[in-house]
Specification:
Elements lengths: L7 E3 L2 E3 L21 H6 L6 E12 L3 E13 L4 E10 L2 E8 L2 E6 L12 E5 L18 H10 L1 E2 L3 E7 H7 L1 H6 L9 E8 L5 E9 L13 E14 L10 E2 L6
Parallel strand pairs: 8-14
Antiparallel strand pairs: 1-2, 3-4, 3-13, 4-5, 5-6, 6-7, 7-8, 9-10, 10-11, 11-12, 12-13
Length: 256
């Protein structure tokens, strides 16, 4: 005959009667297991997939002013970024930049009236964000090496990654940073960052800030801070980014 263990209440815990022949139950911790953000990101990296984002950039000192807003899409390959399509709005006007591989195409903004007749896109290399990149997000959570560096430099919890990293350190691991801000005045500038994580370990928000003089050291930037907030949605969504019609593209401006 099967023997059973009697149900007991001990110290507020309930022990349930089970057959003596049954294997002992395993204790499962109540605390949720943290997801690895780098592994979660790599799980979304595939050709033809991507993520959408929106962001705002503010300049603060004695007061706070929004200097730029952007929205766009990143396209992935198996290793990271394969392309991007970004629209920026600022005092310089509306600018759109499309990047395919390492080639960038920029339209509008400061180039609106500076291209030959019939041409609306300026072709270049190495620039992900066009002119707007200089005021855009310096941290790209779609780059595995960048994400790993941020975790190593900072503190990882179940819901966030926080820390500080210099421009020089970012340049070594992030093609996005190197391409967005190829010219800067102080490579020792420290970027403070907070990345908010979803329950799946994916980044839903990036907030970064640094001294405005780090990129352009002018009197108007003394004592002021650049802060960028970016929000990411649709990780793994289908994306197809293509270069503009070749007939509308030029490599020369009217200034050349």
């Amino acid at each position: 005959m099967k023997k059973t263990i009697t149900t007991l209440a001990v110290g507020g815990s309930l022990l349930v009667a089970v057959p003596a022949e049954a294997a002992p139950a395993q204790v499962v911790p109540v605390q949720a297991v943290s997801k690895d953000p780098v592994r979660a990101l790599k799980g979304k990296l595939a050709t033809g997939r991507g993520v959408r984002f929106t962001e705002t950039t503010t300049l603060s000192g004695d007061d706070k002013t929004e200097v730029q807003s952007r929205k766009g899409t990143f396209q992935f390959n198996a290793k990271g970024l394969a392309g991007s399509d970004i629209v920026a709005t600022s005092t310089l006007g509306r600018e759109r930049t499309i990047t395919v591989g390492k080639v960038g195409y920029t339209s509008g903004g400061i180039w609106k009236d500076r291209l030959p007749a019939g041409k609306t896109w300026l072709k270049g290399s190495g620039s992900f964000g066009g002119t707007a990149g200089y005021r855009g997000q310096v941290i790209n959570p779609a780059e595995p090496k960048t994400l790993a560096a941020l975790i190593k430099k900072g503190k990882l919890t179940r819901s966030s990654i926080t820390g500080k990293i210099t421009f020089k350190e970012l340049d070594k691991v992030s093609p996005w940073f190197a391409g967005s801000i190829p010219l800067r005045m102080h490579d020792d500038t420290k970027v403070s960052y907070t990345l908010t994580l979803t329950s799946a370990g994916l980044v839903s928000k990036v907030k970064s800030s640094y001294a405005a003089t780090g990129i352009l050291d002018v009197n108007g930037h003394d004592g002021k801070t650049i802060t960028i907030e970016s929000r990411f949605t649709g990780w793994g969504t289908k994306v197809s980014i293509k270069a503009p019609n070749p007939k509308t593209v030029t490599t020369k401006t009217l200034d050349d």
